[in-house]
Please model this.
Amino acid sequence: MTIRSVITACGGYLPEKIVTNADMEKIVDTTDEWIQQRTGIKERHMAAADEKTSDMAIAAAKEALLHGSYKGEDIDGIIVATCTPDNTFPSIAIRVQDALDIPPGLAFDVQAVCSGFIYALSVANSFIQTGLARRILVIGAEKMTSILNWDDRATCVLFGDGAGAIVLEADEAAQGSLEDRGVLSTHLYANGHLKDLLYTTGGGTGNNDKPDHVMMEGRDVFRHAVQYMSDIVNEVLEHNHISPDDIDWLVPHQANIRIIEATAKKLDMSMDQVIVTVDRHGNTSAASIPLALNEAVRSGQVKQGDLLLMEALGAGLTWGAALVRF
Ligand code: ACO
Model:
């Protein structure tokens, strides 16, 4: 018997406040033209001062439960990908469990920065396939604006806040074929030697006298992102014995339109088959893929039976991909 983990519902949340590139021009020495040309970003959402990552995660999770007509009691696992938790502990997953009256079951956070959602999806898939849980809320939620240096134009223009959620459910009737709905394969990597290309200055126990700000060697990260994304999409194709033509939608991490375009080109995919939200969301780290998926499902672009390739790269460097029949 093959057990497949099927995405049965999704939800998303974006804070009300929108910060445009024109607004950024008033904060740092930048231009709308520079930001759009280098990244494709036009605007991003910014959480209110008193709005926490858990508030966004809970809102996205509520929407996903509603979408799938689930109640809290139907869920037996929660995995949240985030690098911006409210506090060191308890985890955001615990806060979601409390807020949505989800009964005792597994609940924890995963920290793989912008690749976090792919990591969380992969872990949830393994739990479902080994019978540890049957229906897991997988959430990506970030308040990236809380860890930005608003004097550093090279980083502060890139990020935004938000949360996306899916429900991943066991399908025991799967035959083990490529045509089955569900997660078909996941691929996870990290290269710790590249940890100094993208990191935060404070937080945790390392440097807690310093503010916790994102630091990035953008050009180097960009170079590695293009290479690793190209390598991993090839790996997904080979592993599943498929060609780029078989893929209906690329659902990439939304860091930079140029990285997304390079991956689409590698797959010989038209940009019409790529879900793009970076223009309106900026880089929401672990939230970007579930937010993009939610938009694509709600707009009717992604339909049941479509084959989706998700991929992401983040600080670590970490990177990963998942092939999913929606
Ligand atoms: N406005 C105007 N000029 C700027 C800005 C800005 N906001 N930021 C930087 N510049 C200037 C720089 O000072 C530099 O000027 P100089 O040539 O006089 O020194 C020039 O623009 C070029 O700077 P670069 O950093 O080389 O610009 P680049 O073309 O590489 O674009 C960017 C920068 C957009 C950050 C790009 O490198 C990138 O997207 N990198 C990858 C980001 C990514 O994928 N991150 C992973 C996920 S994030 C996570 O895990 C948290």
